[in-house]
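ligand=adenosine monophosphate
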Amino acid sequence: MKLILLGAPGAGKGTVAKLLTAVDGSVQISTGDILRGAVTAGTELGKEAAGYMKRGDLVPDSLIMGIMEARLQESDCEKGFLLDGFPRTIPQAEELTELLKKVDIQLDMAVEIDVPKDIILDRLCTRRTCENPDCQAIYNVKSNPPKVEGICDKCGAKAIQREDETEEAISHRLETYNEKTAPLIDFYKEKGLLLSVPATSSDAVIEAVKKKLNL
Ligand code: AMP
């Protein structure tokens, strides 16, 4: 499947993407994971992106498009891909449309995961993320804690609160989402590609996607 996952930070895009990879082997492409990996590795990309990310601002479109143009043409994308956190702005969506046309790839749909704001806020404040850039497993101190507090079950690295998950950065990220990313819902609706799922559980989203794609 070739999907875009839309939704506010904390809506569950990453969790849904991970579950969907198990359905048909499509790969999850998370621009947030790629950028965090670059920050940890101290690459040029990471150095450029770090300040924006820490504040909860979007990194410039040009940086993201450079990453995605190369990533979407890697061979593991042939089976399908789940775009998690990209596109995030109308210019990114327009450039993605052009890019997919150029490489002759047809998108199945954009899935909007619509979660009430109070649930989003609670989730972001209680989320923990594995700091190992190759893992980045997600936990929640209330609903899905690691077996040993602060330690990732999967790889043994530390499961930490992300730097952009302070109350101030979270509220800025949500404002940025409303201003810059929410307009993508109408963008894909107008193209007849939107599936909107009002959902608080990842399983409900998986079922809706499978039903729509006859899987
Ligand atoms: P995420 O893990 O998707 O919440 O992304 C974390 C941070 O990475 C965001 O707050 C942005 O600073 C940056 N980021 C991730 N994806 C994008 C994107 N498509 N465009 C611009 N910035 C992005």
